[in-house]
Amino acid sequence: MSSPRAYSDSVLAALTALDEGRTPERPVLREAVRSLLAALTERAPGRSVEVRVPPYGAVQCVTGPRHTRGTPPNVVEMDPAAWLAVATGRLGWAEAVTEGHVRVSGNRADLSAYLPI
């Protein structure tokens, strides 16, 4: 897991709520998801993979062929709690995919080289 000091207040608040068995407040969870998605795009710039965390955000990242129309060939999708877990190293990438917490399609949709953030 990455150092907690590196995370925004919203990420820390959302993780604390989840650890306590509570649902994070919607604005906090939204900001936490978006903050970690932005960090992913900095770590893996590009436009060949679309990462979706509905309903809070989607980004394109990872170098490679750029996608411009329709459904991208390389898609990663998960719920906000799963995104917080894999982005912070609380849940390993392979485990998240195997257990169905993360849905992937396309041969470039493996984000394990970029996580945890």
Summed up:
This protein has 117 residues and is of the alpha+beta class. It is built from four helices and four strands. The protein is globular and about 40 Å long.
The biggest sheet amounts to: 4 strands, mixed
Backbone structural class:
alpha+beta
What is the straight-line distance between the termini? Answer: 8 Å
Share of helical residues: 25-40%
Report the portion of residues in β strands. 15-25%
**Mean of all residue-level pLDDT scores:** 92
**pLDDT below 50 for ≥5 consecutive residues: which ranges?**
none
For the largest sheet, list the strands in their spatial order: 2-1-3-4
Number of strands: 4
The backbone outline, from C-alpha atoms, is: globular
Order of helices and strands: HHEEEHHE
